[in-house]
Design brief:
single chain; mainly alpha; Hydantoin permease; 18 helices; about 0% strand; globular; binds phenylalanine
C-alpha cells in the first residue's frame, strides 16, 4: 500500500523527526508534567512515568508509525485498509479523531494563555499594569476567547501549508529554539536561592507515595505527552518513506520527549521554591505543593515579576518557548482530522484545515469562557480516552493485522529486524505486555485489584 503522491511526504529524515518530536513535546511536557509531579509527590511520579514511557509508550509509538507508513492513510482509513470487510475497526480511528478534537478544544485555550502571557510580560515590563492584569487573568472569558482564536489561526495556517512546506519547515526551526531557551532558563534558576529544596523533591523518590492514582496519572501522562492513542503518529507515519528506520525514529522521539519533560520539571519545580524564598506562597493550607491548572501561569509569572529586568527577559523567553511547544503540538492535533477529510472525503487540505479549525475554535470557546472544564477534560482524555485508544491499537495490531506483517514493514527501513532481538521482543510487548499493563492500571484504579488481593 502506498500513499498517493498528492498527500505529501516529509522532505527529510530530520524534518520528520522534528515534526514528530514537535507533536510530542508540548504543553504536556511543560505545563502538565510539572503539575503532575507536584500533585503526585515529586520524584516517585517521575520514576513511574519513565517506566510507562519505556514499557508502553515506546512499543506503541513503533506500532502507530508502522500502521501509518504501511497504509499511507489517516487513522480511520488505516484501520479500514488493514481489516477490509469489517467496519468495526474503523471505530478505533474514529475514537482517535474524537479524542483528538476533544483534546484540541482545551489544549487550544491553554495555548492561548501561553500566547497571552507573552504579551503580559511585555506590558508588565512597560508598566501597563492594568493591561497586564487582564492578560494574566485566566478566567477572563473574552481575553481567553480572543487568544485561543488567534492560536487556532496560527495552527490552521501552518497545517493548510501542507506537510513539508508547512509542518516540517515550521517545526524544524522551532524545536531547537525551544531547547536552547529551556537550557538557558534552567542554568539561571538553579543558582538562585531556594532551588535546592525543589531539586531534592524532584530527584529523590519517596516510594511510599506510589499508589493507584499516581500510576494511572503517570500512564495517562505518558500517552498524552508522547501523543499516543489517537492516531497522531499513524498520521505522521503515513507521510514517511520506506527507507526510514521506524524503531530508531521512535526511540529518538520518545527520548526527546522524556528529556524535555525532565528538563521542564528541572526548571519549574526548583523555580517554585525560588518563588517561595521570594515570598510567594507555594504550599496550600494542607501543606501540599500548589498544583493546579494555573501552576505554570500563577507561580512563574509572580516569580518573574520579583526578578526585575532579568525576570522580564526570562518571562518573555519562557512564554515564547511554551507557545512554540504548544504550536508544534496543536498542528499535529489538527492534522489528524484534516488527513481524515482529505483521504476519505477527498476534501482539499486547505478547506479541511479551515473547516476543522472553525469547529475546534468553537469548541474552545466553551472552555475559554469556563476554564473549569479543563480539569474534567484532562481527566477524561488523559486517564481514559488515550489509554483506551492505545489498548485498542495494540490489540488490533497484535491479533487482527498481526505482528508479522508489521515486522515485515519495519524490516524495509531496518534490515535485520526479523531475526534480531527487536523482532522477538516487540511483538510480545504489543500483544501481551502493553495491553495487560494498561488493563491492570485500569483495574487497579477502580479498586478491583485491591478487592481481589485484599
Ligand atoms: N503530546 C502533546 C503534548 O505533550 C499533546 C498531544 C497529545 C498532541 C495527543 C497530539 C496528540 O503537549
Amino acid at each position: 500500500m502506498e500513499a498517493s503522491a498528492d498527500r505529501g511526504t516529509w522532505n527529510s529524515r530530520l524534518g520528520f523527526i522534528m515534526a514528530a518530536a514537535g507533536s510530542a513535546v508540548g504543553l504536556g511536557n511543560i505545563w502538565a508534567f510539572p503539575n503532575q509531579v507536584a500533585s503526585n509527590g515529586g520524584a516517585a511520579f517521575l520514576l513511574v512515568y519513565l517506566v510507562c514511557c519505556f514499557s508502553v509508550g515506546y512499543p506503541l509509538m513503533v506500532a502507530e508509525l508502522t500502521i501509518g507508513r504501511h497504509t499511507g492513510r489517516n487513522p480511520v482509513g488505516a484501520f479500514r485498509a488493514l481489516a477490509p470487510g469489517s467496519r468495526v475497526y474503523a471505530l478505533i480511528g474514529f475514537w482517535g479523531i474524537l479524542c483528538g478534537v476533544g483534546i484540541h478544544a482545551f489544549y487550544n485555550v491553554i495555548a492561548g494563555w501561553t500566547l497571552a502571557f507573552v504579551f503580559e510580560e511585555v506590558t508588565y515590563a512597560a508598566g501597563a499594569t492594568g493591561l497586564s492584569q487582564v492578560l494574566s487573568d485566566l478566567s477572563h472569558g473574552h481575553k481567553n476567547a480572543l487568544f485561543s482564536c488567534l492560536f487556532m489561526v496560527a495552527t490552521v495556517t501552518i497545517v493548510a501549508g501542507g506537510v513539508s512546506s508547512g509542518i516540517e519547515r515550521a517545526t524544524k526551526t522551532m524545536m531547537p529554539a525551544l531547547l536552547v531557551i529551556l537550557l538557558a532558563m534552567i542554568a539561571y534558576v538553579i543558582f538562585q536561592e531556594g532551588s535546592r529544596e525543589g531539586l531534592r523533591l524532584y530527584l529523590q523518590p519517596d516510594l511510599s507515595k506510589i499508589n493507584a492514582r499516581l500510576v494511572l496519572n503517570a500512564m495517562g501522562q505518558a500517552f498524552f505527552s508522547l501523543s499516543l492513542g489517537i492516531g497522531t503518529l499513524i498520521t505522521y507515519g503515513s507521510y514517511l518513506n520506506r527507507k526510514q528506520n521506524i524503531p530508531r525514529a521512535a526511540a529518538f522521539v520518545t527520548g526527546a520527549d522524556i528529556s524535555i519533560a525532565f528538563l521542564a520539571g528541572l526548571l519549574i519545580i526548583p523555580a517554585m521554591f525560588v518563588a517561595q524564598s521570594n515570598g510567594i506562597q507555594i504550599f496550600d493550607d494542607q501543606g501540599n505543593l500548589v498544583s493546579s491548572t494555573g501552576l505554570v501561569f500563577n507561580t512563574l509569572p509572580s516569580l518573574f515579576h520579583t526578578l526585575g529586568p532579568v525576570g522580564a527577559v526570562l518571562g518573555l523567553l519562557f512564554f515564547v518557548l511554551l507557545s512554540i511547544a504548544a504550536l508544534t503540538s496543536t498542528i499535529s492535533l489538527l492534522e489528524v482530522p484534516v488527513a481524515y477529510l482529505f483521504d476519505e472525503w477527498g476534501m482539499a487540505r486547505r478547506r479541511a484545515a479551515i473547516g476543522v479549525g472553525i469547529v475546534g475554535a468553537l469548541l474552545s470557546l466553551v472552555v475559554a469562557y469556563d476554564p473549569s472544564w479543563i480539569d474534567t477534560l484532562v481527566n477524561m482524555f488523559l486517564n481514559v480516552g488515550l489509554p483506551v485508544g492505545g489498548l485498542m491499537i495494540c490489540l488490533f495490531l497484535g491479533f487482527v493485522w498481526k505482528t508479522q506483517p508489521a515486522l515485515n514493514e519495519i524490516e524495509q527501513g531496518r534490515p535485520g529486524t526479523l531475526t534480531g532481538p527487536f523482532g522477538r521482543l516487540w511483538p510480545a510487548f504489543i500483544k501481551f505486555f502493553c495491553p495487560i499493563l494498561i488493563l491492570l492500571v485500569f483495574l487497579n484504579t477502580i479498586g478491583v485489584l485491591q478487592w481481589l488481593f485484599g
